[in-house]
Amino acid sequence: MFPNGTLGAINEIPAMLQQGTCDVSLIVTSSLMDLCPEMGVFDLPFLFASYDDARTTITGDVGKYLSDKMAEQNMYVASWLTMGFREITSNKPINSLADFKGLKIRIQSNAVHQDIFSALGASPTVISFSELYTAMEQGTVDAQENPYVNIYSNTYYEVQKYLVESNHVFQVASLLISKQTYDDLTDEQKGWVDAAAAYAADVEWEATKTDNETAKQGAIDAGMTFVSLNHDELLNATKGVYEKYAPQYGEMLKMMGK
Predict the structure, then answer these.
(1) I need a labelling partner for 223 at 20 to 30 A (CA). Which of 108, 148, 200, 240 fits?
(2) What average pLDDT is seen over the chain?
(3) pTM (2 decimals)?
């Protein structure tokens, strides 16, 4: 095992899996779009209503379709995992759609996320994750968005006042095995690996849900003011994002029944 990027940066790992120099890695779908552009569908806003909705969808036809696409890139999708919903923290109160107007919010480098927050009326700003805490501390941005686990573990409650449950993006990840590594296994060994990956997914989905709830409560206990937004209001405001990306993801959305 090579933790914390010691084997390579996240954008380098897919090529290593293709070449067989890395055997197995867990990678979020947004980091796989160069190899499989269809993975970008998961960045669309308010795509899933719950963990169960997301898992049922990703283990259905769309999951098989994407697994076949990844196989063309010499990678075997052993199972689908998640980091859960992305939420918002802010130093300004956010109680409704109107409060997003002019809000300086840090986002990762992602065109769809930029379109989401622009549609909400905010001013999205790309800042690297390593510089985010300082940017909030110095007031370079008013807000940021991440899963609860990241919010709590990075102590954003020290520099942000409001914890806003927006559920704007549900983050999906894949447990990938180099096709070269997988194909070298016997049929019996493949069965072991597939069973282990399926079990790992069951554990990981439940653990992610629990860990995010624990982190959410931890941030509240640390002094953050919790706000739950009207998701229907936000979804209506971001319909234009779906219209913009319909040529790219329309067929995928039909496959999902969305």
Answers:
(1) 108
(2) 95
(3) 0.91
Q: Which of 210, 202, 181 shows the shortest CA–CA distance to 59?
A: 202
Encoding tokens for residue 4? 């914390």
**What secondary structure letter does DSSP report for 154?**
T
Reading phi first (left if > 0) and then psi (alpha if -120 to 50, else beta), residue 126 is in beta
- The DSSP string of 21-44 is SS-EEEEEGGGSTTT-GGGGGGGS
Helices (H), 35-131: 51-58, 61-71, 111-119
The phi and psi torsions of 26 (rounded to 5 degrees) equal: -95, 120
End-to-end CA gap in the chain: 38
Encoding tokens for residue 170? 């549900």
User: Looking at this protein, which amino acid is placed at residue 15?
Assistant: A
Domains of the chain from N-terminus onward = 13-251 (3.40.190.170)
What token pair was written down for 26? 């867990």
What is each CA distance from 31 to 11, 38, 106, 174, 200, in whole angstroms? 7, 12, 18, 10, 21
Residue listed under structure tokens 């998640």: 82
The arithmetic mean of pLDDT across residues 221-247, rounded, is: 95
Residue 121 to residues 60, 114, 118, 126, 254, Cα–Cα distance (Å):
35, 11, 5, 16, 28
Between the alpha carbon of residue 210 and those of residues 167, 207, 215, the distances in Å are 16, 5, 9
3-state secondary structure of 17: helix
Tens digit of each residue's pLDDT (9 = 90 or more) over 133-183: 999 999 999 999 999 999 999 999 999 999 999 999 999 999 999 999 999
